[in-house]
Structures are given as structure tokens and as C-alpha cells.
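QA checklist item 7 of 12: single-chain prediction sanity check.
[x] sequence parsed
[x] length recorded as 280
[x] structure emitted
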Amino acid sequence: MTHAWNPNSPQCRFQVSFCCVKCSHGCGADKPWQHYFYNLVDPSQVHLYGRPPNAYNEALWQKAVRENPDPSCFVPVLATGFDDLQKRVEAQTQQAAAHQEKLKDLQTRIAALTQRHQLSNASRLQRASALQTQLTHRVLKLVQHLHLLIPALRSSALRPEEEALRTALEEIDEEVRRPGGTGRIRGKLNELWALVGAVSAAREKGRSGAGSGVEWAVVDEDGLAQIAQILAEEQAGLAHLTKLLQKDMKDLAVIQGSSSPEEDPDSLMSSTATLRASTL
């Protein structure tokens, strides 16, 4: 009886070796219960481990070696009695606690980084954005008076084409700033694109030979393409100018402490995007 329950005796009826994945109990009425653990070790140190000195059962040892799930990093370890079981439970509990502490440390670091981003980086980004806006306005003012810094241009009068361009830009600026000006520009663009679409449809109809009666076709293909290109450029220019004006009006409203309704400049092109794509 003493040897049957002595963990150091080969006749101990409670010899246990555990697997990290599953347990297979080969116990019987007249045979001791035996099982194997597998410890995870560094692959470069696997060769340092061999058969434990207390592994007296040759068949059980060979079975443990044969059923090793990964011999490159697992080694069989024999645990005898409740004391070894308690040691392994305590070791696993300590390791789990260490993992929890590491997770808490990572969570603390993530929270600190998030707080730093919200308190420091976000405000720095806002200041950088405001500074960029100021620099943009300064550059625009410089470009506006750039002709005064160039001697060749400062002493010469405006050329006719430059004068015409200035007049056209002033008219566009006045048209856009006028109440409802964006809607009128959108209407004009719709009319122009509708005209180009009608010309394109008539051209396709003439090519397919569909319909009856008197038909007409575009003679100057290059001219039609040039018209479409000019319309596209004017449309893009008006959209850019509208965005600048809307932004300036927003900045002015912020300075004055009031709010003003804004029209979305991107909607200027939304009603004609499909027609333009089909035409081009």
C-alpha cells in the first residue's frame, strides 16, 4: 500500500503525464492510470531533453514519443501524483496572469497614444490647416500683384487679349456672386450640353441610317470635338471658381460670426455628368 501511493516508487498507481490537447485514459482495474504532458520549449533546445529518469514504463514512453503532436518544439514530461498536477496548474495560472498583465500594459499604452493623438496631434493638424489657409490667401494676393514685380510687365499696358480675359473673368465673378447666379450658370451649362448631345445623337442617327425624311449630319468633326473640349474646360473653370468663392464666403461668415447658406459647388456638374460622358 505504501509503494502504491508513493510518487517516487515505480509501483505508484497514480503516474500521470499530460498532453496539452487531449487526454486518453488507459486505466483499468488492475493497471495504474498513466498519461503524458508535452512541454513547449525552444526548437533549438529540443535536443537537450530526453527521457525523464522516472519514466519506467517503456511502452508508455514510446507511445508518448510516437503521439507527440510536434516533435520540433514539444517534449514529453512525466508528472507523478497530485503534487506534480498542482505544480503544473500553478505554473499555468502564473503564465495566464503574466499574459493578462501584458495585455493590460498594451491597453494602457494604446490609451495613452490615443489620448496623445486627441490632445496633441489633432490640435496640431487644425493649426497646420489654418496656417495653410493663410498661406493660400497670401499666395493669391501675391499672384494678384505679381505683375508689379516684373519690370517688363510693370511698364507695359495690358494687351487686348489680357483685357478681354480680365473682362470675362470679372463678368463670371459678378455672375457667380449674384444671388442665384450658380443656378443660372447650371442652367446655361445644361442647355449647352443638351445642344451638344442633340448634335451627337443626330450624328449617330445619320451613321446608322435610322429614321426617314430629311436628316442632317455634322460636317466638321474636329469642330464638334473642339466645342465639347471648350465646354468641358469652361465647366471645370467655373466649378473651380465657384469653390473658391464659396470658401471665401464661408471664411467671411466665420470672421463676422454669422452663418450663410452655401451651395455645393460639386453639384454644379452633377446634372450634366451623364450627358457629358455620353457626348464625349
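[x] summary fact logged: The CA atoms of residues 243 and 265 lie 6 Å apart.
[ ] second reviewer sign-off
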